[in-house]
């Protein structure tokens, strides 16, 4: 067995395709608890959460709450998700990356003081495998999980799975107290009914436990007094409030009603003033254009050369002006910082665009650009972005008609592959570049653009080689080859990596973005 830990590279946390709803929260954070308000941490964010059951959660706010309450086998160091680190367990793997052995470290306990054992790990993950409707179910597809002894768990995959440690760091795969969850409806055979219990109580080992949950207004956590890990919090109480308007978040932060605001846009953080700090970084999500390659959808515009023409027609610096602080140009379908990402993107070249346009046989047809008009990503509004794309393409001789629609409506067309020309976004589900292979021909996102494996067998093979690689060096090379080929011959035009801005009062430190769980609440500490 090899003890090599595979570098998995930076990733973004899972993209939640949910509309945000709720109320502002007002001053509710400190109501009824004035005696310990000095030890309370108040966080404002726009909610994307459906449950506090880790086996069902798969939304940004839900992941953040799950991270605070439930520990995972694997962890990351702060905001750096380039290399998986031991969480509850260390691991070894075979050279084929098909067999992994995880060993629980230390004498860790759940919030009721009972020890964490291998049976809890197996139950927690098999419970998710048994719930076909659970959002994180697909993360464990094709994996066999078994207890070796009280401290040891084996994972077996029929195909190479170098990304397994990164997958197991997802908060949705948090370990629950099997005895407690079984007593409250938990099961691994698909008949599980423990979500109701877990929406009102805690069964984890994290630094916090659940106090109250209101999916429309706030989640209140209290310190787990039994916690014996290395992230014990200085705050006895945390209130995470649903504040949907970034302007209200900013006002609350400036007025001292909150300590952290998670959803400020680039303009807002550019002039925060004294007493406030901001962590501004690229989010890892990618906003892109797709050109459908199915003649049944795009007609005579189903030509990959048209994507090339558009790629070189755009002025990316001008597009970035709409994104603000923290945003970067997307250099390819693999974002910057991820394994295999290209160091630089294309620059506007109208001569190349004109040549590709002629090769595509374009004769002035109007492209209908479809996009969601009510779902900003990282502060980037799609309507002004689409208008700027339209204007730049007009200057390059390409006619574009805008066709905005509500997110819920347009999502069906995008997923169903019926958009001829679309403006969308993508973010991976765990911290590994394998998340971007679906852009390849014959794969999930590729098929959404009508791009079959037969349309480009070369890139399809490159994607397959990257997916099955067992040697880290060869794997990185395969991802780089994939990114280069996609940027040359793919039907996608990557545009922007939006920024993510988390602002905090100077009274606290450690409020930084993490692409897997948004923010680690336990890492926030009083300044000084």
Automatic annotation (TrEMBL):
Keywords: Signal, Transport. The keyword Transmembrane helix does not apply. CDD domains: PBP2_NikA_DppA_OppA_like_7 (cd08512). It is found in: Cell envelope. Residues 1-21 form the signal peptide. Residues 84-437 form the Solute-binding protein family domain. InterPro entries: Peptide/Ni-bd (IPR030678), SBP_5 (IPR039424), SBP_5_dom (IPR000914). The keyword Transport applies. Pfam families: SBP_bac_5. Belongs to the bacterial solute-binding protein 5 family. This is ABC transporter substrate-binding protein. It comes from Microbacterium algihabitans.
């Amino acid at each position: 067995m090899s003890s090599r830990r595979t570098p998995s590279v930076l990733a973004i946390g899972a993209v939640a395709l949910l509309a945000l709803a709720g109320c502002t929260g007002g001053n509710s954070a400190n109501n009824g608890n004035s005696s310990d308000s000095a030890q309370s941490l108040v966080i404002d964010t726009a909610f994307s959460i459906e449950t506090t059951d880790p086996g069902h959660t798969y939304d940004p706010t839900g992941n953040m709450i799950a991270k605070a309450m439930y520990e995972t086998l694997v962890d990351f160091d702060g905001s750096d998700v380039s290399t998986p680190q031991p969480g509850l367990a260390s691991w070894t793997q075979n050279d084929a990356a098909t067999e992994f052995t995880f060993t629980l470290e230390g004498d860790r306990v759940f919030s009721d003081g009972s020890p964490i054992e291998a049976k809890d790990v197996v139950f927690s993950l098999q419970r998710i495998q048994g719930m076909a409707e659970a959002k994180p179910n697909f993360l464990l597809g094709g994996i066999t999980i078994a207890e070796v002894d009280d401290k040891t768990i084996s994972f077996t995959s029929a195909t190479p799975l170098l990304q397994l440690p990164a997958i197991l760091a997802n908060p949705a795969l948090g370990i629950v107290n099997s005895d407690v969850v079984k007593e409250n409806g938990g099961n691994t055979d698909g008949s599980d009914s423990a979500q109701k219990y877990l929406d009102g109580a805690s069964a984890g080992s994290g630094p916090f436990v659940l106090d109250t949950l209101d999916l429309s207004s706030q989640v209140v956590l209290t310190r787990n007094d039994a916690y014996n890990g290395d992230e014990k919090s200085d705050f006895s109480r945390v209130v995470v409030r649903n504040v949907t308007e970034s302007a209200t978040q900013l006002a609350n932060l400036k007025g001292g009603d909150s300590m952290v605001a998670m959803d400020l846009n680039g303009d807002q953080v550019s002039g925060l003033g004294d007493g406030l700090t901001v962590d501004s970084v690229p989010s890892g999500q990618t906003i892109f254009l797709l050109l459908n390659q199915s003649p049944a959808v795009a007609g005579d515009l189903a030509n990959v050369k048209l994507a090339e023409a558009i790629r070189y027609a755009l002025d990316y610096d001008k597009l970035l002006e709409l994104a603000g602080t923290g945003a970067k140009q997307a250099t390819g379908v693999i974002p910057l910082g991820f394994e295999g990402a290209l160091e630089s993107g294309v620059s506007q070249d109208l001569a190349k665009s004109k040549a590709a346009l002629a090769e595509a046989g374009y004769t002035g047809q109007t492209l209908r650009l479809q996009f969601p008009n009510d779902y900003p990503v990282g502060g980037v509004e799609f309507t002004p972005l689409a208008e700027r794309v339209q204007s730049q393409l007009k200057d390059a001789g390409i006619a574009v008609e805008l066709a905005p629609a509500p997110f819920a409506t347009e999502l069906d067309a995008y997923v169903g592959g019926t958009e001829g020309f679309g403006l969308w976004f993508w973010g991976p589900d765990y911290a590994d570049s394998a998340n971007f292979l679906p852009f390849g021909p014959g794969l999930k996102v590729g098929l959404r653009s009508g791009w079959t494996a037969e349309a480009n067998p070369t890139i399809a093979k490159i994607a397959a080689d990257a997916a099955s690689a067992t040697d880290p060096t060869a794997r990185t090379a395969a991802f780089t080859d994939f990114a280069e080929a996609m940027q040359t011959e793919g039907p996608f035009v990557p545009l922007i990596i939006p920024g993510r801005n988390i602002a905090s009062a100077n009274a606290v430190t450690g409020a930084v973005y993490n692409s897997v769980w948004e923010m680690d609440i336990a890492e926030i500490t009083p300044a000084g």
